[in-house]
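Hi support team,

I submitted a single chain yesterday and got back a structure, but I'm not sure I'm reading the token output correctly. Could someone confirm the output below corresponds to the sequence I sent? I've pasted both exactly as they appear in my results page.

Thanks,
R.
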Amino acid sequence: MSVRVNYGIGSFGKVVSARLLMGTDIIEGMEALCEENHIESATIVSCIGSLQKSSFVYLVPDETSQINVSFSDVIKKEGPLELIQGSGVVCKRDGGYETHFHGSMSDQWGVVSGGHLMKSGNPVITADIVLAEVQGIQHFRKFDEETGHVQFYPLEHGLQQPRKIEK
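Hi R., thanks for writing in. Yes, this is the structure output for that exact sequence:
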């Protein structure tokens, strides 16, 4: 089996701990925290809480896709929902924020679901979030020719392309 990796080396800068208040979309709230604190790229260290409702997608088989998968239609789940865990990266795309955020949640019967959460579709009841600024690397989301989808693209400051491992 081969190993293929694109990566950058950096360090953590500021750490922002916050509680998002009722009605705030979880992704828009994280991006507002980054903008307010002049953070270009971040990692979501911790994210738990509860949602009024949720909108998300997940991977489904698709033989017409270059990589044999595509995203499902948007799943809309009414709350209240317990956000068990959320993680991801705050990135830039075309000059604006584009956060790649995955979460798992349980409904009032304990049934767990989740996937790639959609911006503007996940208002919180409350959420406790810790963000860590990433310094020395710019996180981008951009179209990837190999997969035919928008993907994570970490670019170290001063380099034209990510570092690579190909074995």
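A quick pointer for reading it: Residues 151 and 160 are 17 Å apart (CA to CA). Let us know if anything else looks off.

Best,
Support desk
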